[in-house]
Structure formats: structure tokens, C-alpha cells
């Protein structure tokens, strides 16, 4: 029997916010097989509004499983080149899994929201 119990990640809660024509989809909690469709639905709803850029903010994400990573890849593939996608991920819970499976080579990943907006500024100049 283990000496201590690991905390159970919170359910996934996703929301969208707008900064001019850039949408920020923020997720808190666990993004896994059960909750990834929530992220997918929020992104799909945001894309219908035709943003000029998309940021997926995983700052408050407690677990990023392969299903969540699949949603990020699908989103990247859906977007036209003129609509950049930036993923905010930092540390062992979010950035490390993306690096381990090679998605850091495919997705633009920044450590915080400020750096994500800076990235978008440089890509639009």
C-alpha cells in the first residue's frame, strides 16, 4: 500500500475569451479520454467565429493525456496557415508530454500567455 495518495485531477473546464480577433481557449483540470471532447467542442465553437489566431492556454491543466494532445493536433491541421495556433504549456504536466511525443516540433508552444501574444505579434509583423 502506498504511503501517500496522489491527488485526483479535477474535471476539465474550458472557456473562451477574445482579445480583439484572437481567441484564447483556456482549460483547467484534466484533459483525458473523457474530457477531451469538452476541449474539442469549445475550440470548434470558437473557430466558427473565424478568429485570426488561436491560443490554447493549458496553464491550469492538471493532466494532459494523449486524447488532449490529439485535439491540439486536429486543431492545428484544421487551421489555415494564416490563422496561427499557439499552445501555452510549461513544465512536466503539459510541455513535457508534448515534447516526449514530438509535438513540440509541430506545434508552437510558449511558456505563458504573454509569450504566446508576443509570438503572434512577431508572426503578424
From TrEMBL:
GO molecular function: anti-sigma factor antagonist activity
STAS domain ranges (all copies): 23-120
Domain of life according to the entry: Bacteria
SUPFAM superfamilies assigned: SpoIIaa-like
Family annotation (InterPro entries): STAS_dom (IPR002645), STAS_dom_sf (IPR036513)
Descriptive protein name: Anti-anti-sigma factor
Organism: Mycolicibacterium neoaurum VKM Ac-1815D
Amino acid at each position: 500500500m502506498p504511503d501517500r495518495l496522489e491527488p485526483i485531477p479535477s474535471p476539465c473546464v474550458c472557456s473562451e475569451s477574445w482579445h480583439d480577433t484572437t481567441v484564447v481557449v483556456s482549460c483547467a483540470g484534466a484533459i483525458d479520454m473523457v474530457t477531451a471532447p469538452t476541449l474539442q467542442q469549445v475550440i470548434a465553437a470558437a473557430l466558427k467565429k473565424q478568429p485570426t489566431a488561436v491560443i490554447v492556454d493549458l496553464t491550469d491543466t492538471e493532466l494532459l493525456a494523449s486524447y488532449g494532445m490529439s485535439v491540439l493536433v486536429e486543431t492545428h491541421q484544421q487551421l489555415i496557415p494564416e490563422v496561427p495556433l499557439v499552445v501555452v504549456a510549461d513544465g512536466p504536466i503539459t510541455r513535457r508530454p508534448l515534447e516526449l511525443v514530438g509535438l513540440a516540433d509541430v506545434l508552437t508552444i510558449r511558456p505563458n500567455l504573454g509569450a504566446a501574444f508576443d509570438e503572434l505579434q512577431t508572426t503578424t509583423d
